[in-house]
Structure formats: C-alpha cells, structure tokens
Amino acid sequence: MKADLGVRESMLAAVPGLRAFAMSLCGKMDRADDLVQETLLRALTNIDSFEPGTNMSAWLFTILRNLFRSEYRKRRREVEDGEGRLAESLKSPPDQQSHMEFEEFRVALAKLPPDQREALILVGASGFSYEEAAQICGSAVGTIKSRVNRARTRLAELLAIENASDLSPDGTTQAVLGRNDLP
User: Fold this and answer.
1) Which of 127, 130, 169, 172 is the most buried (most CB within 10 A)?
2) Do residues 48 and 97 make contact, with C-beta atoms less than 8 angstroms apart?
3) Domain range for residue 162?
4) Alpha-carbon distance 122 to 114, whole Å?
5) Phi first, then psi: what are they for 114, rounded to 5°?
6) Residue 114's CATH number
7) What are the tens digits of pLDDT across the range 109-119?
8) Is residue 35 in some structural domain?
C-alpha cells in the first residue's frame, strides 16, 4: 500500500512532537532532525506494516525511540567530550531570563534517569496518555505512571520548586512538571 493522503497528513502532524521528543533524547537539534528524518523514511519504507485505525503518532514515536536506542548502542564506542569542555566553549551565555530558566530546566531534565526522562517527555510534553506512552516504551502502564511521578518529583527538587507559583509561565514546562500535582 502506498502512503495515501490521510497517512501522509497523519505523519506530518506528528513531526513537531517527534522533533521535541528527539531533541529531548539527543540534546542536539541537528541530530534530532536527522533522527526525525530517518524515522519518517523508515515509516514510509515500512508503511505496509502500519495497521490502519491504530495510533500513527505512537507508531512513529516507537520507530524514533528504537532508532535512537540503536544509534546510542553504536555511539557508545565513540570518544565523547566527557567533561563538556568543548561543548561549553561553543555555547554563548543566555541574554534573557527565560533562556537561563530553560537552560536550568534542560540541565535538570538531563539529570533524570533516561527511562524517567523518556516517560516524562512522552506524557508531559508530547501529550501522550499513560497507555500510549506505555505502548511506545514497551512497558506496563503502572511503570510509566511511576516513572513520570518520580521524574516530576525529582525535577521539582532539582529546580527548587515548592509550589505552582514558582513555575515558569511556559506551558510546556508546566505540563512536564505536572503543575496540577504541586500545591
């Protein structure tokens, strides 16, 4: 079956979420874009394996996640900038408060265990239900709920957030941290 118009539109609608998820996994926009491009290419190549009537976004997120994990296994053998000296030298300091807050949030998010970060991004930032996130991650729903809860608690600790008024007005940050879960 060739990709019909409905499938194409569903795939295109998922791209912003795929990019955000890829960025949360990679930490680098160029690698994230490459990962999304490879995800879409694989999806189109294997479109016959997509079951019509199922969740296209969940299928694409699963492909992306699997691609990332495969890349990660390959890159483990590469020499990295372990202390971050090269990376720090390439960055320019933020010039606005929101940029600094975002950087603090990004650093705190990076400190979470990968499985918790992944679950939190899927549920909090990408808007997937716990059930959909569990399907994407190949985990039980209860496991995803636990990971999200632990991740939100740890992020609040890392960012010294005691109540909802401490949160940035940014909607994504509030969704990830679960604003309704805080006093």
Assistant:
1) 130
2) no
3) 95-181
4) 12
5) -55, -40
6) 1.10.10.10
7) 889 999 999 99
8) yes
The reply to whether 70 and 99 lie within a common domain is: no
Angle between helices 5-26 and 29-45 (to 10 degrees): 150
Is 111 part of a structural domain of the chain? Answer: yes
3-state SS, one letter per residue, for 108-164: HHHCCCHHHHHHHHHHHHCCCCHHHHHHHHCCCHHHHHHHHHHHHHHHHHHCCCCCH
Counting as low any pLDDT under 70, the low residues of the chain are 1-5, 75-98, 162-183
Q: Cα Rg for the chain, rounded, in angstroms?
A: 17
Same domain, 57 and 135: no
Contact by Cβ (8 Å): 87, 55: no
Predicted TM-score (pTM) above 0.70: no
